[in-house]
Write a structure and sequence with these properties.
alpha+beta, 6-stranded antiparallel beta sheet, Mago nashi protein
């Protein structure tokens, strides 16, 4: 099975139950394993930060707005500098992490096995993690 096909099959499992995505946002998420649950962060274009969590596969994703803002534009620039739009999605694993960007009517996701983020994306992920603290 190609990585692209595998990605198309697993993304609904990772994000199933999520509300309609914002017109422009950046989402980092990890999920899978025995329960199929997971969690992550959504940073919207207005710099609002939402914590995402799901207890098990198929459950709705719960969103909690945090009392903080992140620099959406700075994170978007880091993604551009990393060339994320040209990165292949990779194949899902037992515990799959991803970063997805929705912008200008487009969407692109990059996935990796938990603990093995592409080195070029690590600055982006650190910036997002800081926003969620």
């Amino acid at each position: 099975m190609s990585a692209r096909l595998a990605a198309l099959l697993v993304l609904p499992l990772l994000f199933g139950g999520a509300r309609q995505a914002a017109a422009e946002d950046i989402v980092s998420y990890c999920g899978g394993g025995v329960t199929g649950g997971g969690g992550g962060l959504r940073i919207e274009a207005d710099s609002a930060v939402l914590r995402l969590g799901r207890a098990r596969a198929g459950a709705p994703i719960e969103e909690t707005r945090l009392d903080t803002n992140a620099a959406y534009d700075r994170i978007a620039v880091l993604l551009d500098e990393a060339g994320s739009e040209r990165m292949p999605p990779d194949a899902p694993s037992d515990m799959t992490c991803s970063i997805t960007r929705h912008w200008q009517g487009k969407a692109h996701a990059v996935m990796w096995s938990m603990g093995h983020a592409p080195p070029v994306l690590r600055p982006v992920l650190r910036e997002m993690e800081a926003a969620g603290r």
